[in-house]
Amino acid sequence: GAVVSQHPSRVICKSGTSVKIECRSLDFQATTMFWYRQFPKQSLMLMATSNEGSKATYEQGVEKDKFLINHASLTLSTLTVTSAHPEDSSFYICSASKGQVGTEAFFGQGTRLTVV
Amino acid sequence: AQKITQTQPGMFVQEKEAVTLDCTYDTSDPSYGLFWYKQPSSGEMIFLIYQGSYDQQNATEGRYSLNFQKARKSANLVISASQLGDSAMYFCAAEGSWGKFQFGAGTQVVVTP
To answer: Which residue from A minimizes the CA distance to B95?
Structure first.
């Protein structure tokens, strides 16, 4: 099956610094990728849709200047958490679809971010 | 917009028994897809099963089957012959526009020996 790789799997950073998370589709081209955030024991909440070659589309309530998304190629989307604070600590997970209706979304392994 | 409701926050099931996880959905889209994913403690999302809104038959994938009742807008997951490795969080999801998923709150399943 298709593989989506996410890196890093875990990161600890100091408050006020920025962290970049990468999401790569390894064996297919993904013009659209999605970024989700998940708090402990809660569901995945869509943050934004990453569009190759254009601006990301953010869900209501998600600060675009806080969570910078870049989708510079058909296989790579990055999420940068800028000026991270402890409340940004969460599990971030990306997904990509092959673009056919009814096909599964392929998820990265997720990134556990801890801001201290 | 779609809404997914999973009313069971947690369930215990004995090994080798079957368990049904409830999922109801609300959508105005005439055509839609419903998915179930498993998330173990490692965090990865594992695809289990898919049901298209126009599929005439209920989907099955090994020990997983989907009880799709379109009129009731429900898509319950049935896991037969539970195994210890089935202990995980289970999410029901609906696919909106291409690749965009709306997830339910999830059900934590614990399989006991």
So the answer is: A102
CB contact under 8 Å between A101 and B50, yes or no, is: no
Burial of B41 (0-12, 13-18, 19+ CB in 10 A): exposed
What distance in Å separates residue A45's CA from the closest CA in chain B? 8
> B55: nearest CA in chain A?
A102
Task: Decide if pLDDT at A107 tops 80.
Answer: yes
Mutate to test the interface with A, among B53, B100, B110 (most CBs of A within 10 A): B100
CB contact under 8 A, A104 and B100: no
CA angle A15, A63, B45 (to 5 degrees): 80
Q: Residue B28 in contact with residue B11, Cβ under 8 Å?
A: no
Residues paired with B91 in a beta bridge? B37
Phi, psi of B55 (to 5 degrees): -70, 130
Residue B65, strand partner residues: B60, B78
Q: What number of helices (H) and strands (E) belong to chain B? A: 0, 12
Q: What are phi and psi for residue A88, nearest 5 degrees? A: -85, -10
Tokens of A54: 């254009």
- Whether the CB-CB separation of A110 and B43 falls below 8 Å is answered with yes
| pLDDT tens per residue across span A17-59 | 999 999 999 988 888 899 999 999 899 999 999 988 889 999 9
